[in-house]
UniProtKB/TrEMBL annotation, chains A, B, C, D:
Organism superkingdom: Bacteria
Organism: Bradyrhizobium erythrophlei
InterPro entries noted in UniProt: Homeodomain-like_sf, HTH-type_TetR-like_transc_reg, HTH_TetR, NicS_C, Tet_transcr_reg_TetR-rel_C_sf
Name of the protein in question: Transcriptional regulator, TetR family
Domain HTH tetR-type: 18-78
A Gene Ontology molecular function term of the record: DNA binding
DNA-binding region: 41-60
Signal sequence segment: none
Keyword annotations from UniProtKB, A to Z: DNA-binding
Transmembrane annotation, as ranges: none
Amino acid sequence: MAVEVAGTAARKATRNPEASRARILDAARQEFVSYGLSGARVDRIANLSGVNKNLIYHYFGSKDALYLAVLEGIYAGLRERQRDEDLRELPPVEGIRRLVESTFDHFVATPELIRLMSVENIHFGEYLKRSRSIKPLYSGLLDTIEILLKRGQSTGIFRPDVDAVDLYLSISGLAYFFLSNQHTLSWLLDRDLAARRRVNKRRQHVVEVVLGYLLGSSLAGAKG
Amino acid sequence: MAVEVAGTAARKATRNPEASRARILDAARQEFVSYGLSGARVDRIANLSGVNKNLIYHYFGSKDALYLAVLEGIYAGLRERQRDEDLRELPPVEGIRRLVESTFDHFVATPELIRLMSVENIHFGEYLKRSRSIKPLYSGLLDTIEILLKRGQSTGIFRPDVDAVDLYLSISGLAYFFLSNQHTLSWLLDRDLAARRRVNKRRQHVVEVVLGYLLGSSLAGAKG
Amino acid sequence: MAVEVAGTAARKATRNPEASRARILDAARQEFVSYGLSGARVDRIANLSGVNKNLIYHYFGSKDALYLAVLEGIYAGLRERQRDEDLRELPPVEGIRRLVESTFDHFVATPELIRLMSVENIHFGEYLKRSRSIKPLYSGLLDTIEILLKRGQSTGIFRPDVDAVDLYLSISGLAYFFLSNQHTLSWLLDRDLAARRRVNKRRQHVVEVVLGYLLGSSLAGAKG
Amino acid sequence: MAVEVAGTAARKATRNPEASRARILDAARQEFVSYGLSGARVDRIANLSGVNKNLIYHYFGSKDALYLAVLEGIYAGLRERQRDEDLRELPPVEGIRRLVESTFDHFVATPELIRLMSVENIHFGEYLKRSRSIKPLYSGLLDTIEILLKRGQSTGIFRPDVDAVDLYLSISGLAYFFLSNQHTLSWLLDRDLAARRRVNKRRQHVVEVVLGYLLGSSLAGAKG
DNA sequence: CATGAATGAGATTTCATTCAT
DNA sequence: CATGAATGAAATCTCATTCAT
């Protein structure tokens, strides 16, 4: 009888275990994203998902385990979209540009990701480390970067001595900080960092910084 | 003649309000940094600081107000050390380099700052916005960057069309992400990002990225 | 097959929400009546009602809200028993006599009412004013008095110029003070005002005062 | 140096034990009157009186003892003003009228008295009973009433069989209820009972009720 | 006489979790 | 599979009172 209605309001029982499970996960993601791990409330998750609180424990065992399930789902989405393997064949500059842009875009499109990454680091990454599913997602990422770097360096367009890890951290960090700390920064700098124009501008800037660094002569490293 | 003993164990009452207040703030900083706002426990702060729990409420009024006091203290420290005004007189490249380095160094030296910034953004910056003391600290920062940029651009060493806000976000972000997300990144990338060598290398990299971007021709922005 | 045992000792959980709610309300009434609002203790209410303390918050939200619920229950009982509408048809003297007696009797039968009225006035009636349910109970009362007064005055038995509000206040006040201040008055006047004989005597006295006033010539108002 | 300033704001230390003691009592009266015994806060009394909290304990020993001191002060004032002995010589009607009026007037002039009487009865009169000073104040009251009654009855103007205790309770109760329950009654009856006109009207009404009863034929007691 | 600092016990309220059906 | 009722432990906060000077 129950009609599935999209939205966030509470709904009636479905007698459909898959749907219940999914709705719990959905609500939990919202809750953990909004309030962090300690700040999240199981009661609110139950209300939001429209299921009985006990079902949450039935399916997930504990608040912590539920958080971990949410975390895994979010990270899976991140790496799925980055799909870096496709980039390996591209011309190096184009490949890097695409990697920078897709990283930036995914961060922008999934603010939940940013917040959960912050939350997880507040908790010293201990839940991430418990996960079996997340780490494998990262296996190919550095390889992709390394391949693009090597190809770019072999033709002399990219500066030598660029570390793939550092480059990855820079690509992510240039987008991440801007987004993760948007609330404090907007206030402190008197700019609305969430404004569409600002975001677009930032995207271009990040690309320029990464490519400017890679393409620039290494003189920059010399004493100013 | 109670001897002041350094460390974290509880101590006896001091009958010295300044000292009590300071010890509470100290313990609170540790607690909020370790567990976030929701995860922090007033009991632990009382134990850690060696004062009666009530004294915390006597001096600070509430857990939230105590958090705000900690936040203000931390931010004051950040901007105090950045002391950007001194940099305005330097040659532009040198000025930027110093700004990058001091930002990086302060972040590294004050891991508490990074964590509290994360915590605060998880809470949408609402406590920061309540503070009267923090925002003024940021008033001169963008001016400094703008001055250095202008001077560098007027002699043609810096690329044109660089936005001071974007530059500041990049300088900070390149250091911040690496530090704030150290726990998850170390695990996912199979590198110990906290290792001294890694940190030093990162410092140099960040300088190179920023200067590489500023000094590089703007061709980088062109299609790959 | 848990057997319901009457009394005030704690009982096991009933898994019957109506019963739990009722037991909480019951215990709360006793507690607020005995100690006032500030003096009441949620812990005692929990013990007395035999439920977990949290259940009180689950059902009522806060100590204050629980107090309001108790207050509403008590007032509802008062006006229900007064059932003044029935009196409108009676001969005026008989109607007033019955009103006086039923008011007196209900006050005597429900000492909790008197105490809660005192408690509420100590708190400036602020909870009463928050209630949506109480005020409507009083809508017909003054009408009833007015009707009886008019009819008695038209035949000349009741003195003219009697204000219904004043009459109601006198009817209530003559009974109320005797009961509400019983403890101090018994001590100060060296009489046991709670004694059955005294109460019966007082009941008769109150009727006589009210009717004596209404039936007497208005000469009494003249300078002695 | 310290200048004595009238008012309720906190003042500096006076090094004047009598003044300090008086100021504490003053503030305590306000506090107990406003919030009752359980609701009163020692901290507020200290602030209000402008003395160190410890001094309160120095002079009065405990919150309870301070409350008792306030209570005694208030009751002393009541009986002092009633000065019923003066009334014994008056013509009976005049004597009763004066007693009614002075009781009413003192209640109106000293709202604190009404509230403390309520507070004390909420606490079952247990503090009053501990007082040595209060009870003696009431010794002559019933005698006065009895004398006036006897004289009025001997000349036939007053009805026979009037109990002095009942009469006293009626005189007080007719004024007390109107004042003590002003907050709830004003709300429930949709009348501002605190309005000057209302109070004046009530005063006259109370006199009329008492004298109407005393002067009326005892037929009123007969079945209506 | 007087004070500012500090305390301990206990108050209200919260919250993850389990019970009984 | 699913639920509404209930719980225990612990959280934040309050308040009368005492300490040390």
